[in-house]
What does this fold into?
Amino acid sequence: MPEWLDDFLWTYQNLVHALGINGLLALSMYVVLAVGQLSLGQAAFMGLGAYSSVLLTLKLDLPFLAVLPLSCVAPVLFALAIGVPTLRLSGVYLAIATIGLGEVLRAVYLNVDWLGGALGLSGIPGRAESWMIFGLLGVAILALWAVGRSAIGRAMAAIREDETAAQVMGINLARYRLGALLASAVLAGLAGALGAHSSSFIGPNEYGFEPAVTILSFALLGGIGTPLGPVVGAWILTLLPEVLRGFSDLRLVFNGVIIVLAVLFLPEGLLALRMRRHAA
Amino acid sequence: MTTLLRTLALTLHYAGLFAVDRVDLNVQPGSVHALIGPNGAGKTTLFNLISGLVAPTEGTVLFRGLDVTSLPADRRTALGLARTFQTSRIFGAMTVLENVLTGLQPRCFAGLIATVLRTPAFYREERALVARARDTLHMVGLSARADLPAATLPHGEQRLLEIARAIAPEPALLLLDEPAAGMNPAETAALANLVRRIRDLGTSVLLVEHDMGFVMDISDAVTVLNFGRCIFQGTPAAARQAPEVMEAYLGQKVAARLAARAPRMTV
Amino acid sequence: MLAQQLINGVLLGASYALFALGFTLMFGVLRVINLTYGFYFSAGAFAALFLTRDAGLGIWAALPLAAVTAGLIAVALDWLLLAPLRRKRAPELASLMVTLGGVLALYSAATAILGPDIRRLPPGLVDGTVFELAGLRVATPQLFILVASFVLVGALVWLLNFTRLGLAIRAMAENPDAAGLMGIDTGRTAALVSFVAGCLAGAGGVLIGLNFNAIHPYMGESMMLRGFVVVIVGGLGDIRGALIAGLALGVVEVLTAGYVDSGLKEAVAFAILVAVLWTRPSGLFGRPALRRA
Ligand SMILES: Nc1ncnc2c1ncn2[C@@H]1O[C@H](COP(=O)(O)OP(=O)(O)O)[C@@H](O)[C@H]1O
Ligand SMILES: [Mg+2]
It folds into this structure.
């Protein structure tokens, strides 16, 4: 590695890691939006991945490359528990249940002693390397891009546009929606484990309501035409507070306003969710 | 030959209203079967019951000899059932070709791994799908539009695209809900030819249509619904003369008066 | 001991039911999950704080004024965020998303302006006498909450069932297009429903603020979890369901805190929500539509 790059990575390591991790989170939102669903569970899944990976590291001292896949287990189990019943119902149920999941887990982290309570868990070794983060991000982008340009991607686009017509095309809605939610849980779980092992500390408030909505703003800023859009959105929103000093106070207001503007003024461009009020 | 589609006492009850009331319908393979009846008679609802978008209150749907009553719509499609909608529901944001490719979903077998790894088998399947989609577009006369966004097509072509999307996987039965609505006479004539071609290629057709010339011209059998009930089942020629059919269309008094004057009215 | 817990649970549940009522009413009539709803709760509590602490009003004057303030905020937000989507007949998830972005902006703006600290209402707002009856203790603030909840719920039931406005609201819940054709001004009805819902949330904020004496900008957000549990268990849009489920949730939380662990209150509530989704997704009491209470 050239010396300047080494210096740069050393100085800005936190920011560089945050770019990669937020990119993964943006993708975990993208896969769900791509089947016309809205999940606010990404932050909760990230928190599950983070807490479970940190426990595996601190209590069992497992090697990080074993911890990483195991950090997806808890997010996937919760995604199944919430996804299986709600994905048969109208989309609002998944949204409600996932917002609720975030609130509940926050309360649990706060109140359960062996999860560190309000102080969180600290003394986490910095085992996440840039190559792991960006390797996973690259693989995820390529895989999602490949899926997008295939029969599976066409089925997803069809579901997004008109669920009834998609079903009549022979597309099993529940299968695609659950698949997308599980992929989302895996991506967010990995991001959680990587994030936890890039900082020395995790706490209950890092995975609550604000990050959940912020992840949505990544995807809506970048648009969901291709997987690159959300990643670019994540990068812009991660870099802005670094570039504009004094912006960080208003960061969350800005993220919220992005969502409002995107939905009110660009709904067709961002999300080809169409109103279909009747069965036929 | 066994009956392709049978409904047995199929019933759907909405609050205070039988939208479909104990309907026994038989569609024979290789036929064009018309379903007619006044507005609100329950034709679209019957289509929704047959295609599995709505669950019946009572009754059974048999398709190709299988009881599909409790199968969801996508499984029925996989068995060879296809349909269009009364107001077209093409995927407007996709291109014309992509719409037809989406209709070919029952022929897509490449799994997630093959798709991500872009295996030779994936490319083989994708090429076959595109070839089949282009053939289908050619058959309905939309080849020149393949790469346009579907939403930009004029109304008549959108209806043809919806038919192309439905017949692409060569279904055993195609349900058409008012396919000629909003078409001009030239387009309607072309549509009649297309429906015959579809039948000759081995797909039976069950269609709802108000244009009686069109119905009489192409159908082999006619079923008449009124207030959710099946009031007539037979040949087009017999339907023309059946007094109960005339009554349904014209109202009882008018029909009686007409029958007194001229016993052989066209419907 | 158990009887005391049950009483405390019912008292807590009354405010949950009150809070969830406006949320389920909005869904029943306007067909949207309006996530800015939690903000009306915070706004009502803060309005009561300013009115009592800075303007020196008593609680009986502050409660209705705070409720009306929250109601007006609800109307403004509905007009700003949801009315344009209703006109475009946008899908329900678009409405949900826009209120999600809106509420994040509102909470974080409120935190930036007011600060994140916990505020307290001036002492002595409701006198703290404790009644004892057959060994059961009920404090005056709790009684106040109970009475206020019953009055507000009664007013809502009366409004829906015995007024022309209520008829318009029920017609719109049944079928907005038909209601429009029948000459009901659906835009005005939507604004009124938002106002009523905002008043209920705002009143809930005052009452809960009074009960726990802790007011902060995000208090509405943690309350939304209770709102979700109540409306899902009671059935989305079901008013009677929300009343029963709200009372039941209060009891369950108090019992969990009393006999298991107060840190698991939320987890138990959420487990009930998930269990209902698995078994009876349209709610424990039947069909998901606006039902007469
Ligand atoms: N979702 C529904 N809820 C209640 N009634 C319905 C619904 N859909 C259709 N209907 C009623 O069922 C009857 C049959 O409708 P439909 O099948 O659309 O008739 P057709 O297609 O023959 O014109 C009509 O009276 C219609 O109003
Ligand atoms: Mg019809």
Summary: The CA atoms of residues 115 and 217 of chain C lie 8 Å apart. Strands of chain C lie at 130-133, 136-139. Residues B 14, 17, 19, 37, 39-45 surround adenosine-5'-diphosphate (ligand 1) (CB under 6 Å).
